[in-house]
Amino acid sequence: MQAEKLLEKALRSPQNLRFAEALKLAQAFGFQVVRVRGSHHILCRPGVPELLNFQNASGKAKPYQIKQLIEIVETYNLNLER
Q1: CATH number, domain with residue 26
Q2: What angle, rounded to 10 degrees, do the helices at 63-75 and 19-28 form?
Q3: What gap in Å lies between CA 43 and CA 8, rounded to an integer?
Q4: 50-54 LR contacts (CB < 8 Å, sep 24+)
Q5: Domain count, the chain
Q6: Residue 15 pLDDT level (bands cut at 50, 70, 90)
Q7: By percentage, how much of the chain surpasses pLDDT 70?
Q8: 12: domain range?
């Protein structure tokens, strides 16, 4: 799925975003996985001091973590990378 469509899906219904889609969306905004410990995937992006912590909960991303991603994107005015 394209990043634009994933963003629309995340905004429309964050509770229905799959974990793999959440990772793909974060990576489309320039975040990179820096470490994995158990089910926790920690992502960072240069220029953004906050870290993202995504958990795989039975194949789904946790809705509050998707909302955190969207808040960071809006706060730092991040654009999708091409």
Answers
A1: 3.30.920.30
A2: 10
A3: 21
A4: 52/26, 54/19, 54/22, 54/23, 54/26
A5: 1
A6: very high
A7: 100
A8: 3-75
**Sheet strands side by side (includes 40-45):** 32-37, 40-45, 48-57, 60-61
Give pLDDT, residue 59: 94
**Token couple for 59:** 């194949």
Q: How far apart are CA 48 and CA 79, in angstroms?
A: 13
How do residues 31-72 score in pLDDT, each as one tens digit? 999 999 998 999 999 999 999 999 999 999 999 999 999 999
Identify whether 81 is part of a domain.
Answer: no
Of the candidates 72, 60, 54, which has an alpha carbon nearest to the alpha carbon of residue 15?
60
